[in-house]
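pipeline: protein-struct stage 2 | run 1193 | ABC transporter G family member 22
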Amino acid sequence: MSMEKPPLASGLARTRSEQLYETVAADIRSPHGSMDANGVPATAPAAVGGGGTLSRKSSRRLMGMSPGRSSGAGTHIRKSRSAQLKLELEEVSSGAALSRASSASLGLSFSFTGFAMPPEEISDSKPFSDDEMIPEDIEAGKKKPKFQAEPTLPIFLKFRDVTYKVVIKKLTSSVEKEILTGISGSVNPGEVLALMGPSGSGKTTLLSLLAGRISQSSTGGSVTYNDKPYSKYLKSKIGFVTQDDVLFPHLTVKETLTYAARLRLPKTLTREQKKQRALDVIQELGLERCQDTMIGGAFVRGVSGGERKRVSIGNEIIINPSLLLLDEPTSGLDSTTALRTILMLHDIAEAGKTVITTIHQPSSRLFHRFDKLILLGRGSLLYFGKSSEALDYFSSIGCSPLIAMNPAEFLLDLANGNINDISVPSELDDRVQVGNSGRETQTGKPSPAAVHEYLVEAYETRVAEQEKKKLLDPVPLDEEAKAKSTRLKRQWGTCWWEQYCILFCRGLKERRHEYFSWLRVTQVLSTAVILGLLWWQSDIRTPMGLQDQAGLLFFIAVFWGFFPVFTAIFAFPQERAMLNKERAADMYRLSAYFLARTTSDLPLDFILPSLFLLVVYFMTGLRISPYPFFLSMLTVFLCIIAAQGLGLAIGAILMDLKKATTLASVTVMTFMLAGGFFVKKVPVFISWIRYLSFNYHTYKLLLKVQYQDFAVSINGMRIDNGLTEVAALVVMIFGYRLLAYLSLRQMKIVT
Ligand SMILES: Nc1ncnc2c1ncn2[C@@H]1O[C@H](COP(=O)(O)OP(=O)(O)OP(=O)(O)O)[C@@H](O)[C@H]1O
C-alpha cells in the first residue's frame, strides 16, 4: 500500500504470509510437494525427524523474529507448528527442509497445537497453553504432534469491486438497497484478516459473500479462490462460524463435536479416527473440563458463552478447513477469553489456513493481533491493508486521534463519521465551508455523511488502484493446485445410510428428554384414566350404550389425530437454523436428514399410545380379545403417523410456528367436524372433505374392529371391509411427508 508517511518499523517486517509464500513455493516446486486429487500431498506427512529435527534453540531464535509476537524476553518458548514453519524458511534450501516442507508447509498440514500467549498477558492460560502440546519427543522426531490432521489445499482469496444489492419489496413498490459498494482486497494462507466497521456497515454480508453463501446473481465484481471462481467443491474446504451459536442444546460438547466429525470428515477416515479427531479438537480448544456438559440454551443451563463459542469454532475447524470465516467470534466474551479466541485464530492461520473474522470493537490488544484489516463504513471500503499500517494511513489523510485512544475505537469513530477528539483534515474543513449547510452539523463540524464521503474518496484516490493492481498478480500455486478449487463435485463425508444412522442417533439423543418427559406421560395417562372412568365397562347391549361407546371411539380417533399434528409442526421450524447451517456446509443429504428426523420420533409415538390404549381398552370394556385389541392399536398407529405427516407438511411449508399453529388448528378442527360423529347429513358440495380427514377413516376403522360381527351400520357409518380407509391413511402417511420433503427442498438456505 502506498502512503504518504513511511510505514512503521513493524510494518517493514514481512508478514507471515509473505514469509510463507516462499515456503509454499518451495513446497510446490518440491517433488515431495505435489498434491493428489484431494489437495493432499503425494507424500504422507513426513515424520518430524532426521535432517529436519527442530531444535529448541533454533525455535526460540526464530520466535524472536516473528512479527507481531513478543517473545517475552525469550522466556516464552513457542513450540508450535508455526515455529516449525518458520524454521523451514531458514532451512528451505536444504534437502531436509524440502522433504519436511512437503508435509508441514503452508496449507499442507493442519496442526494448531495450542494457543501461544505471552504469560504476562494471560495468567490463567492453562487450557490454551501449548507447553504440553508438543512433547519433547516430537522435537526429537520420535512422535507426531497430538493433533495432526491431514493436509489441505491452501486458499488465496481475492475479491475485486464486490457489490451487493437487495431489492426490498414494499406494499406497492420495491426499492433497491446497496449493501456493499466496490470492496476489494485479498487474504492469503497464514493471515488473519479482520473486517471492522460500525453496526450495519456490511461486515456479515461481506463475510457471507466471501464464504460463497450469497447467490452470485445478486452480487457484482469478482471473488476468486486461488484465481478460480467459487465451486461446490470448496464447501468442504470452507468453515463458517456464524454470529449466533447454532448448536443442539441437549447434546454434550463431546457429542456435538463427535457427530460433526462423523458427518463431515471424509470417508477415508475410520469411525475411531473421527472420534479421535473430535477429542483432539476438544483438547485443542481447552474444552476437556466441560466435554460432558450439555450445550444448553434458553431453557437449559449448559456451558458458558465462551465455551459455547469455542464449540461452534470446533465444529468448523474439525473439518480442517482451508478457509475459516468467523462472524464476531468474540462478541459477548470477556477480554481475556476474546484474546484467547483471537490467538487461537492465529494459530490456525499459522498452520497454513486463511482466516477472516468480523469483529465489532476489539480491545487494543486484540487489534494488534490481526495481520490485515478491512474497515467498512455504510457498505463502502474505508481501508484495506496491514492492520499495523492503518493508523499511519489515516494520519496521512489528516485524521489522527487527539487523545490517547484504542486504535479500534478511533477507526470505528471515523467509520461512523464521529470526529470528536479526532483531528479534522483541512481539506474536509474547506469542503464544509465551501459546501452547503447540510454537510455541516450545528457544532460547525462536518456531518457524518461528509466525513464518510471524504474517507471513501481518499481511499479511492490514494490506495484503491494500487491495491487492485496487486490483485492481478497470480497466486504462487501451480495450475494443478489451482484447478482443484474449481472441481464441481460436492464431497459428502459419509454415505447416505451412514448419514441417516448418525442423524437418527443424534435426533434420539437431542430429544431424549422429551421421550422421558413425565409431563407428557402424565398427560396421556391421566387422559386415559379419565376416559376409563367415564366409560367404565360400557355396555353396548342397549342403543344408548352403543352410541356412548361409539363416542369413545371417536374421541380416541380425535385425540390421536390432534396430538401428533401439534407435536410435528414444531419439527422443522425449530430446526430451521441448524438445517440452514448444516445444509450450507453440505454436511448431509436432505433426504437422509428428513428420514432420520421423521423416524427418530417413532419409538415415542408407539410407546405412549400403547400405554394409553392398554388403560382405556380394559377400563372401558371394549372387545376383550387379542385380535380386536391389536387391530385397534394398529389403527391408532396409522392415524398417528398420518396426522404427524400433516403436521410435518404444515411446518415445512410455512416454517413459522405462529402461522403453522394457526393453520393446523383450523385444519384439525375441520377434519374433526367432518369426521362423521357430529354431523351426519353433510351438504354434497362439502361432503368430500371427510375423505381428507384422518379422523373419519380412523373412526370408521375402529367401529369396524369393534362391531363388525353384529352390525352393518353404526351411528350412520357403514361398516365394510375397511380397505378403503387403510389405503386412504397410507396415502396420507406418504403424501403429506412427500409434501413436507418437497417444501424443505424448496427452502432457501439463508445465511
Ligand atoms: N437481505 C437483506 N435485505 C435487506 N437489508 C439487508 C439484507 N441483508 C443485509 N441488509 C442490510 O445491510 C446492512 C448490513 O448488514 P450486515 O448484517 O452485513 O451488517 P453488519 O456490519 O454485520 O452489522 P452488525 O455488526 O450489527 O452485525 C444492514 O443495514 C442490513 O439491514
